[in-house]
């Protein structure tokens, strides 16, 4: 009798698990509640944004993301009847917080800002693609744990075309990351155009050969020249592309003294007399570079409603790239600083 009871309970749990639709979202949301039924997203589905003009670009971005499933980009309108995905900004939610509700009648995505709405749509996008247009009824509530969430792309060792950089940004956006650390210069290549010193990119972007194997154990080189760099127009295009996905670009520019040797750095193409005394990192180098027309700022496209500048701020003994976040604050508290 006891065995029969255990078997019945096991079968009941198995049946419940089998019947409940699986909701796979990455990163895993804070709260997921499944419902009954499903909603089908197809070419006839409409995304509505109300009178909030800031949500139109977010809706159009989502329409493009699910086009492989719907066959064509769904329409984005102010209002619509029938099956729709309604977008709205809810001031009661945090800036990056969102609530996604899916019922058989449609979907509703609310966020504390257009960025939060986009994160909700990224979750909905994953469900649309996984179900090939069929989305289970579900309520998802989520917000990020860390304010700074990013990844680095090093194009110094291995140069990547603009389209590949954009594909990398798309991956960051899909996972709701908000910082793109763009490593643009190092010993192996200078990858950004500086108009006052064209040789920095034209010559400094090309190395005569590349090491084969491990740096510590190999002395073999392939003897093949390798290079490439981004024009200022391409850099602006990349930053604008990231801003549309609510991702901030943080450029990393190496200074003289950081590297395997000053004479191997692309910056060594600058006048030799100007390089004296610049073997240590610090404030003087930032002043020197600015005097030489190398005020390393990247002019972005539209972000938060207007043009913005993403600077690499120079401080004595350190370079601060982003405002202090919860991770830095907790680390200082733990160290007693």
Q: What this model shows, in words?
A:
With 337 residues, the chain is an alpha/beta fold. Helices cover 29% and strands 25% of the residues. The chain is built from nine helices and 18 strands. It has helices at residues 2-19, 56-65, 67-70, 114-130, 162-174, 199-202, 232-244, 283-291, 326-335, and strands at 31-40, 46-48, 75-77, 84-89, 98-103, 106-111, 134-142, 150-154, 179-183, 185-186, 189-190, 211-212, 220-221, 248-252, 297-303, 306-311, 313-315, 318-320. The strands form six sheets. It has a seven-stranded mixed beta sheet, covered by helices on one side. Strand 5 and strand 6 (106-111) form a beta hairpin. The protein is elongated, with a radius of gyration of 25 Å.
**What is the total tally of β strands?**
18
> What is the number of helices?
9
- The secondary-structure element order is HEEHHEEEEHEEHEEEHEEHEHEEEEH
Radius of gyration, whole Å? 25 Å
Q: Please, what is the average pLDDT?
A: 79
Helix content estimate: 25-40%
Shape: elongated
Strand order of the largest sheet: 1-7-5-6-4-2-3
**What structural class do helix, strand and pairing data support?**
alpha/beta
How is the quaternary structure best described?
Answer: single chain
Largest sheet, strands/sense/barrel: 7 strands, mixed
Spatial separation of the terminal alpha carbons: 64 Å
């Amino acid at each position: 009798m006891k065995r029969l009871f255990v078997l019945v309970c096991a079968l009941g749990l198995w049946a419940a698990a089998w019947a409940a639709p699986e909701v796979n979202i990455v990163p895993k949301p804070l709260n997921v509640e499944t419902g009954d039924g499903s909603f089908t997203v197809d070419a006839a589905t409409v995304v509505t944004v109300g009178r909030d003009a800031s949500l139109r670009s977010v809706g159009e971005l989502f329409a493009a993301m699910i086009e492989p499933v719907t066959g064509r980009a769904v329409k984005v309108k102010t209002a619509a009847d029938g099956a729709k995905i309604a977008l709205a900004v809810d001031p009661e939610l945090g800036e990056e917080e969102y609530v996604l509700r899916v019922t058989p009648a449609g979907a509703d995505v609310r966020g504390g800002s257009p960025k939060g709405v986009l994160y909700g749509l990224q979750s909905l996008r994953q469900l649309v693609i996984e179900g090939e247009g069929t989305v289970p009824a579900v309520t998802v509530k989520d917000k990020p744990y860390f304010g700074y969430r990013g990844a680095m792309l090093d194009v110094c060792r291995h140069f990547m075309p603009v389209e590949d950089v954009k594909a990398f940004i798309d991956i960051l956006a899909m996972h709701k990351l908000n910082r793109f650390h763009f490593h643009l210069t190092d010993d192996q290549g200078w990858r950004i155009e500086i108009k006052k010193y064209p040789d920095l990119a034209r010559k400094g972007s090309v190395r005569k050969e590349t090491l084969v194997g491990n740096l510590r154990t190999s002395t073999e080189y392939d003897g093949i020249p390798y290079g490439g760099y981004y024009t200022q127009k391409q850099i602006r295009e990349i930053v604008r592309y990231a801003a549309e996905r609510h991702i901030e670009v943080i450029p990393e520019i190496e200074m003289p003294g950081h590297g395997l040797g000053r004479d191997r750095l692309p910056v060594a193409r600058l006048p030799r007399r100007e390089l004296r005394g610049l073997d240590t990192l610090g404030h003087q180098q930032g002043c020197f570079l600015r005097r030489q027309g190398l005020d390393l700022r990247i002019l972005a496209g539209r972000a938060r409603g207007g043009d913005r500048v993403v600077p690499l701020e120079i401080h004595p003994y350190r370079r601060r790239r982003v405002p202090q976040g919860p991770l830095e604050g907790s680390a200082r508290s733990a160290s007693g600083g």
